Amino acid sequence: MPAFLAFLMHLLALAAGLVVAAGMLVVSFVGAVLWLLHSGWVRLGGKPVWSVLLAAARRRGAPGGWSESARPAPGYVPRRARVPVRDITDVEPK
User: Fold this and answer.
1) What's the confidence (pLDDT) of residue 66?
2) How far apart are CA 3 and CA 1, in angstroms?
3) Averaged pLDDT, groups of 10, the chain, 94 residues long
4) Whole-number Å distance between alpha carbons of 12 and 22
5) Is pTM beyond 0.70 here?
6) What is the pLDDT at residue 92?
7) Residues 20, 28: Cα–Cα separation, whole Å
8) Staple partner for 55: which of 31, 46, 50, 91, CB 3.0–4.6 Å?
9) CA dist., res. 31 & res. 68, Å (int)
């Protein structure tokens, strides 16, 4: 009889695990469908699609280059992109 109860407990644990896995699968599927509907609706309106987390980070001004103050000034050229003038040979002066 103890072997039968152990087998029954294993079956119940397996069934509970399958129910949890199926529930997570359904929740993730519903979330994906809702996200696709949302992004389609936003694109119909002509706006860029932002994730919820990224939009919240932009509103909060999180570090990492998302806020307006973290962007470089207009006309800024990184040091590695600067080319010495003596290397340019194919441009005619005006």
Assistant:
1) 47
2) 5
3) 92 98 98 91 82 70 55 66 62 73
4) 15
5) no
6) 76
7) 12
8) 50
9) 31
Concatenate the DSSP letters of all residues of the chain into one string.
-HHHHHHHHHHHHHHHHHHHHHHHHHHHHHHHHHHHHHHHHHHHTT-----HHHHHHHHHT-TTTTSGGGSPPTT---GGG---GGG--S----
Backbone angles phi and psi of 85, in degrees to 5 = -65, -30
Residue identified by tokens 């998302």 is: 66
Token digits for 86?
A: 């003596």
Residue 93 has which token pair? 């002066």
Assess contact for 80 and 71: CB atoms under 8 A: no
